[in-house]
Known about the structure:
Structural class: mainly alpha
Number of strands: 6
Strand order of the largest sheet: 1-5
CATH class of the domain at 111-270: Mainly Alpha
Largest sheet: 2 strands, antiparallel
Strand content: 5-15%
Number of helices: 9
Distance between the termini: 38 Å
Helix content: 40-55%
CATH architecture of the domain at 111-270: Orthogonal Bundle
CATH topology of the domain at 111-270: Recoverin, domain 1
Radius of gyration: 23 Å
Amino acid sequence: xxxxxxxxxxxxxxxxxxxxxxxxxxxxxxxxxxxxxxxxxxxxxxxxxxxxxxxxxxxxxxxxxxxxxxxxxxxxxxxxxxxxxxxxxxxxxxxxxxxxxxxxxxxxxxxxxxxxxxxxxxxxxxxxxxxxxxxxxxxxxxxxxxxxxxxxxxxxxxxxxxxxxxxxxxxxxxxxxxxxxxxxxxxxxxxxxxxxxxxxxxxxxxxxxxxxxxxxxxxxxxxxxxxxxxxxxxxxxxxxxxxxxxxxxxxxxxxxxxxxxxxxxxxxxxx
Length: 271
């Protein structure tokens, strides 16, 4: 386990029995225990009695040798896309891709008009038209606020609108995130729970810590701690946009940026 800072999956706890645990696991103000364990590597998991509640924990470890304990998920990063070498398309895929692109172009032209650019209202109409064709996705469609966030993410020229190329790039991202959502929506309820969301975020290339996962749950989950498809996409759009903005300001790559109040407001208000 040493050096593994990743979130432990459910299977780990199914196949590894606990070596020590609180004897009185009841809803009390304070529970304390003392354990003596042989030298080995251990994972210490604090827990509240009810899920999704905050609590304070004090842990004291006495060891004969130097203690090498560390907190899991203490690094925050995003996977950068790997540039693939251009390969010749397979004959079977060429027609399918061109047909999809042609379909997008026709829908885009019908809604965008002669200028071939869309605002948030028009983007909402396009996305919901396409999403409604996917019967396996139980969603009420994207909201106007979601589409505004998407435009802010993909609007490279600062026009407040998306052209066909920007829209197609956005749709490729949505399709990739859609596959992740459907993978974790095993019961096809149209939602995933907060535990599955943690794994979904990691699969999408975003590596966060526990505090940020808690913030995502508070911000995007409903009262039952479930996240629907619209909120799921909104969360990924925000993560993508915030990481992209931070990397743009982090010129020297030291993980620290300095913003004045104007830059901060421009960044947060348009995101």
